[in-house]
Write a structure and sequence with these properties.
Helices cover 27% and strands 22% of the residues. By secondary structure, it is an alpha+beta fold. The strands form two sheets. A six-stranded antiparallel sheet has the order 1-2-6-5-4-3. A six-stranded antiparallel sheet has the order 7-8-12-11-10-9, covered by helices on one side. Helix 1 packs across helix 3 and helix 2 packs across helix 3. The radius of gyration is 31 Å and the shape is elongated.
Length: 352
């Protein structure tokens, strides 16, 4: 089963979290200000005494009635595993630590940058892999359909960026820096806008790095022996859970996995590959959730089940679930069971 994150959704989440304000503040509109004249006493009364020490001039405000879109500096989002920033860093820069499974860190970052450029349909005008430098051609990092996020209906601006990868000598940490090297458009390029554009370009790469590493983790789990269960069919055409793992690897350890999910093994038939087990809905308490020991509750009724472990024609293994009468479970029930079992494998890091 593959794990993936919709890139469009990930990028939209990054935009909303990185400090782009959608709403304008109208508190400083000139109609909200009032000037106060000194108290005027009637002609028949004396003017109140006023200590000159505390005398204040009448407030005068020169306000622009046109609403202004105030936005804070954008924030580098360290959503990828092993990513971090230096708190006092004024540059659009992020650091990546080498996670398990990554053979070449700067190569992994490089591929993430190239994938982001491909998503933006932009080519590189300069590439130097030895120095870790990529310079882009013109493209708009803020699409026209997203202009409402920036409080403007004007045409999208165009930018050129420079990505710089610097790997530490121990090759366990690498930094990625983004610099805006050219800009053209209707908007004035202020220091704030420059910072926001650079950080947005950087956050796109961080998101891509995270997406790619999550895919790598799935492959790692498969190589390490953790079953990745998918919906499929056994050799007789029955709905079943299918894995690429070998029959021997699954059959020898699957009964132990079932016992962790509130099954009691009744019988194991080595010749036919049939496992018979009783399932009892686990009881949970508030202490289980506090200590992170909650037992996975499967979407099946209590009772006895038969699990037929068989070799598939493709060389993998199928798990056909049947009730106590030998009837195969419905595909809808199998789909819910697959998701629950997969979640249990991942949550507990169980290797079958």
């Amino acid at each position: 089963m593959q794990y993936w994150i919709p890139k469009a959704l990930a990028v939209s989440v990054l935009v909303s979290l990185s400090g782009c304000s959608v709403f304008t503040n109208d508190a400083h509109n000139e109609r909200n200000y009032r000037t106060h004249e000194p108290v005027k006493a009637p002609a028949s009364l004396s003017q109140p005494a006023q200590d000159p020490v505390y005398k204040m001039d009448i407030g005068q405000y020169d306000n622009n009635p046109v609403a202004t879109n105030y936005r804070p500096p954008a924030q580098v989002l360290t959503v990828a595993k092993g990513s971090w920033v230096e708190e006092t860093d004024k540059l659009a820069r992020v650091y990546f630590d080498k996670n398990d499974g990554i053979d070449d860190l700067d190569e992994f970052v490089w591929d993430s940058i190239k994938a982001v450029l491909a998503d933006n349909n932009v080519s590189a005008t300069k590439e130097d892999k030895l120095l870790g430098i990529i310079e882009t051609d013109w493209y708009s990092i803020i699409k026209t359909e997203e202009s409402w996020l920036w409080g403007s209906d004007e045409n999208a601006d165009l930018e050129k960026f420079k990505f710089t990868i610097e790997e530490k000598s121990h090759q366990r940490t690498a930094s990625l820096r983004v610099d805006l090297i050219d800009f053209k458009g209707d908007n004035a390029l202020t220091d704030l806008l420059k910072q926001q554009l650079e950080v947005r370009a950087l956050n796109q790469v961080v998101s891509e790095f995270d997406y790619r590493y999550r895919q790598l983790e799935v492959d790692l789990r498969k190589r390490q022996g953790i079953i990745s269960l998918e919906m499929g069919f056994d050799n007789k055409g029955n709905a079943a859970l299918v894995t690429e793992q070998s029959y021997d690897a699954v059959f020898d350890r699957f009964s132990g996995f079932l016992e962790r999910l509130s099954f009691t093994i009744v019988e194991i038939n080595q010749d036919t590959g049939l496992i018979t087990a009783d399932y009892k809905t686990p009881e949970s308490s508030v202490w289980d959730s506090i200590w992170g020991d909650e037992v996975t509750q499967l979407p099946i009724d209590e009772g006895q089940y038969q699990i037929l472990v068989s070799k598939t024609k493709e060389g993998g293994t199928s798990l056909t679930w049947m009730d106590d009468k030998g009837e195969t479970l419905e595909p809808g029930t199998m789909n819910g069971l697959q998701q629950a079992l997969e979640a249990a494998l991942i949550q507990r890091g169980i290797k079958i």
